[in-house]
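Summary for the funding panel

The consortium committed to producing paired sequence-structure records for every protein in the target list. Below we show the first two records in order, beginning with the earlier of the two.
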Amino acid sequence: MARKAAFYIAVGTNGTGKTVDLKKFLPVNSKNIIFPANRIDDAWDEIPEKVIDFKWIDDPNTFNVKMIQKYDTRALYEMKKGNRKIFLDYNDKKTLKAQVNDIINIDILPNGRKAILNCGLFFDDYKNMIITKGTIPGYMRQVFNDRRHNMVDIFMATHGFNDINADFIPFGPTLIIKKTTMAPSKLFLDRIERPEELLRTIDTVNRTAEKGGKNQYYSQLFELT
């Protein structure tokens, strides 16, 4: 029986320790792939970068001579343990789709095995990949749909509750609630169970964090179902 795959979202303003909290989950898996928000953020500087090279191949879906980019992720499949970060191209949605599909979703070996198995995926400031409102892209939805089958844990970070796409809710994420400055919208609250309990949790976290010192990093967990 496949184990239950974890799904956590750290929610909090800048400087509240979201990334620090996410790093606490690195020991859960022997292998982790981190997707930083950008190259400017130094939060993951201690993690070695894995450069995913690509090559041009014949497009199997066309009859004419057309070439497509194919990312070589065999090294990720062969990676049995350790942590690596990969920088994705968030500025080009077509390239981003190809990268996510090739790195996470697509079977890469003749036996149908994927490069990403039995590991943790960390998306720091995932708004670069997934819009706040509307349907999440199909290639990202597949990441969540397949996570139990692939035994993949997902860890994400964002700045506010209203950044949490409604499509995430059916996947049952656990929120790591840090200090926030904007309350969740009525639309968000209407979509979840136990909205009053969530508001009480947010209030407790904010009042504790406002005491300063180590309390500024205070957090509580809340299962969003």
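The next record, for a separate protein in the list, is shown here:
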Amino acid sequence: MNAVHTASLTPGPISVAIIEDDAPLRRLLGGWLKQAGNILIAGEFADTESALCDLPAKAPNVVLVDINLPGQDGIECVRQLKPQMAATQFVMLTVYEDAQRIFRSLAAGATGYLLKRASAQELLAAITAVHRGESPMSGSIARKVVASFQRELPRGEWQAKLGAREQEVLDLLCQGFLFKEIAERLGLSPFTVNAHIRSIYEKLHVHSRSQAVAKYLGV
């Protein structure tokens, strides 16, 4: 990761926790966050076990999670923390670009996936984005996700329950488009898109974008 110079974030403090076993990198990340001006560091942890013990009570807005943690990995960490921290957004930090880890992370409850070579500006922008409801990903990661949706996927029994418009909305939702962007692309009102998304969640028996993505991909 590159050095930080300046960053423009949305107003109001964002509480952020770090789960990273590499102590120098953990300190570097903490330094970036402190320089951002409107980020409060809610805690720093070196492994899943310590995060599970202390993090739920802190309830930060965003948690940065290294995938390759000792013991239980970062994906398992998110899987266990997300049910206890429904309002918290988890962003994976990793050197891995393979699709399986991406989709396992989404299935576990992560809403962002960044490579560790991301710059400080990219990281801080991702924290802002995920805090306002977006799903930030490094460019190369996003391309892999889009490529996966461009492949012909077998229709499961649950997919057959979706209408054609709901399928279009789900495709765009899974590619990372915001609700407003989906509305613009499909020529629908935001209210109609929200109605479609509520229907999709109900039919898939899920409660979030990440769960819908995981079910769509069968992970």
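Regarding this second record: Residues 2-10 have pLDDT under 50 and may be disordered. The first helix runs from residue 23 to 35.
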